[in-house]
Amino acid sequence: MDRPTRLVPLHYVAVGGRGPEDVVTDPDGRVLTGVEDGRILCLDGLGDPDTARVRTLARTGGRPLGLDLLPDGDLLVCDAERGLLRVGLADGTVRVLADTVEGEPLRFASNVTALPDGTVYFTTASRRFPLGQWIGDIVEHSGTGRLLRLAPGADTAEVVWEGFQFANGLTVSGDGSFLVVAETGGYRLTRYWLTGPRTGRAELFAELPGMPDNIWRDGDLLWVALAGPRNPPLDLLHRAPLAVRRAAARAAVHAPYRPVGTVAVLALDDQGRVVHHLARDNSGFRMVTSVCRTGRYLVLGSVWEPGVAVCEAPTAK
């Protein structure tokens, strides 16, 4: 992979809540996000931190993570506590679409994407650890992440693939032939085929230099946030027996955690080729979990920070 170019921060905008984990833009260039206290927010005018506006559109009653804006203006929300939700942004109504799978409660719904025919695919990061203990899943490395599908009109989700290492960000290819799933614990993006001779199969899409989190489609590009760089001691631990990894995971969930200061975002095309790789060391804004573009800016979200970072977008290649 080519040497990264510098990620240029312009300013920071507080959102009045902690952890704007996923950021997506609407057709008017406004940014939507969800924060730790359950609110869905609309961020407008982010080009000027002095006049930027933050409005509350809805409250999920849980912890919203991944988002996908529907053509009719409603918002699909993966809520780590309540499951898969549909939120009416015009009136703030919240409807649960799925909160169980195969007879067990949905735990740790992570990201979601909708297809034109109304089919909804979404990920769950872990079957063993809740959001508050996410690091346990990364350390244990037991691969319990899932890809699920909710058919049009259905009220029960089905599992279509399992065994992901912390399944996270999700999007569909430009031609609708496959999904791309971010495996945070595997440093990779995985392709799941929806059409063609390999329908229903999964394969490597791209190896990455860090831990991918949310994915956002911008025309022909897939923007991917890297929540952290590769960690050689962690890689070594992942080769240890399961009993050792489980003991390390039990310790990790009780240990204090602070993200490193290296942040990065990537843009890839639908062939898995890196078009942009932007990075910054010693960043004061840490643990970037999402990225989207609005106008001439990149907006970075973070499960850790109480606001978003506004950066200079790269020029087209």
UniProtKB/TrEMBL annotation:
Q: Which UniProt keywords apply?
A: Glycoprotein, Phosphoprotein
| Top-level taxon | Bacteria
Sequence intervals crossing the membrane? none
Q: Which residues form the Strictosidine synthase conserved region domain?
A: 116-196
**What Gene Ontology terms describe what this protein does at the molecular function level?**
hydrolase activity
Q: Which family does it belong to?
A: Belongs to the strictosidine synthase family.
Q: From the Swiss-Prot or TrEMBL record, give the protein name.
A: Strictosidine synthase
Q: Which organism is it from?
A: Streptomyces fuscichromogenes
